[in-house]
Write a structure and sequence with these properties.
By secondary structure, the chain is mainly beta. Helix content is 10%, strand content 37%.
């Protein structure tokens, strides 16, 4: 029995993708855990398969894709998170086209709200700035007691890291959603994000 209740959630596609490309610079960043005001903004995204793949069909769209400063969630993932009671994600409309067949797909850009200081600084190995901010995490140890009650949040010490409760990991796996990697803190390696 695994005793971990929280995991780092990463978007991971096959070697050829598809990868998400936004056709312009976004006016805001979705990796800070804060509510963004421009709710009418729409993302135009292409899911592109690497040109080295002679046949793009083995590389279908996933349920999660990285954007420059956030994530692209499929409608299936959004509905699963809603069923789990997750209510701290701000969604933005996204016009998503899959390059292989020019199909329009149902996705939204996801801004994960909430930041929790949950890194056990004494047990973790980190490189710090002169002001005490975390530059890199070489060994991660989460203090799960600080995460109680949260299903999905950003890690205060490194906001690029999204932490999810085991219930999300298990539901994603049970539903067969694609594009995810869940890493326990003891398996986390610098450079995974």
């Amino acid at each position: 029995m695994h005793d971990k209740n929280y995991y780092v959630m990463l978007a991971e596609s096959e070697w050829a993708g598809p990868n998400a490309f936004v056709d312009y610079e976004t006016p805001f960043r979705m990796d800070r855990g804060r509510v963004l005001d421009n709710a009418a903004f729409e993302f135009n995204v292409e899911l592109l398969v690497d040109k080295l793949a002679t046949d793009p069909s083995p590389f279908p769209p996933c349920d999660i894709h990285n954007l420059r400063s956030g994530y692209l969630f499929s409608q299936r993932l959004i509905e699963l998170l809603e069923r789990l009671g997750v209510d701290n994600i701000q969604y933005f409309n996204a016009n998503v086209t899959y390059q292989n067949n020019l199909q329009k797909l149902a996705y939204k850009a996801a801004n994960i709200l909430g930041v929790v200081s949950a890194l056990d600084m004494d047990a973790s190995e980190v490189v710090l700035t002169s002001q005490g901010g975390v530059i890199t995490i070489e060994k991660m140890v989460l203090d799960e007691a600080r995460l109680q009650g949260h299903k999905i949040v950003r890690l205060f010490e490194s906001v690029m890291n999204v932490i999810v409760h085991r219930s999300i990991k298990e539901a994603v796996e049970a539903e067969g959603l694609t594009g995810f990697m869940f890493v326990s803190d003891d398996k986390f390696e610098m450079g995974m994000i």
